[in-house]
Specification:
- This protein has helices at 14-25, 47-56, 72-82, 101-107, 133-141, 166-169, 182-190, 222-242, 249-263, and strands at residues 3-9, 34-41, 62-67, 87-90, 96-97, 113-116, 118-122, 162-165, 196-199, 205-209.
- By secondary structure, the chain is an alpha/beta fold.
- The chain has a single domain (3-263), classed as Spore Coat Polysaccharide Biosynthesis Protein SpsA, Chain A (Alpha-Beta Complex).
- Helix 8 packs antiparallel against helix 9 (249-263).
């Protein structure tokens, strides 16, 4: 198995998760070479939706996992543990990808390279494209083969919209203490194993749904954001100190500043 796609979901729906799975069913990459791991976290709601997906897409290799513990990080960690692919892709259940997404990311990858996709935002599949910060970085660096992590640091703000070798992830997992900033912390944690970032040639596209109800867009009280930020600072420091000769101090300093700015925008 080449690729494992991990999709956390809390309350699955055909409009969101179903559309995401449909975009994977339409991939130009051989279906026998990738698996789709859907991890439902929290109360076991809408079980019929998951059953429908298994019947609606019989040619896809779909695995359904369940955990009573809520949280995207825990769900992703479960997916990593069960994944058998050499490469990992994370997709949020309200997002979707272009038909050539897996093929073009895979064409540009190797064991020490993370390949990144183009990203646009849409309020719905029929909406116009909205500018995304990773999409802007992709346009700037597409065609560059040897992008170092400090140059391509904005690619590492999200675990989605890229293909990651399992070897790079190794035994590192998402920190389940965080509901905000966990993506950037995870990517910083695995950065010691990344030699090169490469925007995949050909504009494989990750469509980020602009959903105001998504977890990352929920407004949180100032006191809660400050407490979360202090914990993130400590987590970054602990991660860096654990292997100071392997991590880039400039990269970590930049990630801390970027996380601080993001939490208070």
């Amino acid at each position: 198995m080449d690729i494992s796609i991990i999709i956390p979901t809390h309350k699955p729906s055909m409009d969101f998760l179903g559309f995401c799975i449909r975009s994977l069913d339409a991939q130009t990459f051989q279906k026998e070479n990738f698996e789709v791991i859907v991890v439902q976290n929290g109360p076991y709601e809408n079980k019929d939706i998951l059953d429908q997906l298994l019947h609606q897409f019989p040619t896809l290799n779909i695995k359904i996992l369940r955990t009573a513990e809520r949280g995207v990080s825990n769900a992703r960690n479960m997916g990593i543990e069960k994944a058998v692919g050499r490469y990992i892709c994370f997709i949020d259940d309200d997002d979707w990808v272009s038909n050539d997404y897996l093929e073009k990311l895979h064409n540009n990858i190797s064991e020490n390279i993370i390949t990144a996709s183009f990203v646009v935002g849409r309020e719905s599949p029929d909406d116009n494209d909205h500018t995304d910060y990773i999409g802007l970085v992709y346009k700037r660096y597409v065609g560059v083969d040897n992008l170092k992590i400090l140059e391509g640091r904005r690619f590492l703000g999200s675990a989605c919209c890229k293909m990651i070798p399992r070897k790079i992830i190794s035994n590192i997992r998402f920190d389940t203490r965080f509901a905000m900033g966990e993506d950037a912390l995870f990517m910083a944690s695995i950065s010691k194993n990344i030699d090169i970032l490469k925007p995949a040639i050909g504009y494989p596209t990750y469509y980020r749904r602009l959903n105001i109800k998504s977890a990352s867009r929920q407004s949180r009280p100032l006191k809660q954001r400050i407490a979360n930020l202090l914990k993130l600072w400590k987590a970054y420091a602990t991660t860096y100190i654990s292997s100071p000769m392997s991590y880039s101090p400039l990269f970590f300093a930049n990630r801390i500043m970027a996380t601080t700015k993001w939490l208070f925008k």
